[in-house]
Amino acid sequence: MERRCHFMKIKDVEKQVGISKANIRFYEEEGLIHPARNQENNYREYSEADVEQLQEIKKLRLIGIPVQEIKDIYENRLTLQEALSHRLDEIEKEERTLKETKLTCQKALKSKLDITSIDQLEIEEEKEEWQVRLAILLKEDIVQKKLSRDEMNNEIACFFIAGTILSVISIWLLPKDYIGTHLYVGLISLAAVVGLLIIGTCSANMKVHLTLLLLGAVVQPVGFFTIGTLMGSGYIVCRDTAVLKQYVIYLYGGAFILAIILWMGSKLNRYILNKLWISMLASLIMAGVIAQMLNQKYGHLMATGELIVGFLCAVIYLAAVSGTWTLANADWGKYNRYHAVYTSNKMINVFATIFNAAGYYSGKNWRR
């Protein structure tokens, strides 16, 4: 009982502080708050100190202090007075921009311009104020655009399918015995995978996540191949790396086909990507297809145990990928193009997907 009095779940914090769950998770990702984890169910538990800090963050954001500067304040790299001074400088620039905008609008009104004569409107676009404002507005148009469920799924599908194609090409071009004789290359790829995962966890920038998606799509299949090689004889026939290479290609090919099936199915019935059991069933069937294809081509080289391991690995990966996509649909109304890229990146990342699946299924956490 005492534990419940001192800790709150995220939905309670959302109500008390007045900011959304997505924002609370974003601030956690940025290192501004550090909620504890309940060891029994993996739920986040927010203390009174976390709530007070969120109240402070809310006030600082209301007056326009950037998230990075708030983080610098808490980490003693910047004082509040310095942050306020920076903000005042920005406000003065904004005032100049608003003044220019106001004068331009007044001129347009006096000239009685309509849409056919808007080209007559004189704007000194070379001025710094206008350049800054244009850059901000164009970025907002792209990143902060709210997406419908279909639009979000379209973008997730396109990014993920492009990534799986890159992954198949990457592993296809890799000589079948290369990792076995150049193991250091595989180990470097695994280190790169970990590095990409860390960067993705620390950043909330859409361009960063898009870059990570493309890099990860190339590097991670090599890392996957390396893990299979390190597992040694007895698992997915690592003594015959041609089989392992074909298995990885089948795995990504299966993910590609599964994504298209779920995507097209969601256009016929939106519940296809809204029900977790449908995604899990589809993943199980696709994993069975992969295992059957592997058996038909390499059954004479593989023991039953090896086929079972291959099947289970496929189930875990495909279920985590489809589950990530399905759970993204649960809160689709709160997300924009950034979250489409963010979701696609997690689906492409073999290791991050499985790592995050535990949190999704037990704690139902979306934006960690």
UniProtKB/TrEMBL annotation:
The residues covered by the HTH merR-type domain are 18-76
State the source organism's domain of life.
Bacteria
Q: Which residues form a coiled coil?
A: 81-140
Task: Give one Pfam hit by family name.
Answer: MerR_1
Note the InterPro entries from the entry.
DNA-bd_dom_put_sf, MerR-type_HTH_dom, MerR_fam
Keywords annotated in UniProt: Coiled coil, DNA-binding, Membrane, Transcription, Transcription regulation, Transmembrane, Transmembrane helix
A single Gene Ontology MF term assigned here is: DNA binding
Question: Do the record's keywords include Disulfide bond?
Answer: no
TM regions (residue ranges)? 156-175, 181-200, 212-235, 247-264, 276-295, 307-328
Which PROSITE patterns does this UniProt record tie to the protein?
HTH_MERR_2 (PS50937)
Can you name this protein? MerR family transcriptional regulator
Q: Which organism is it from?
A: Dorea longicatena
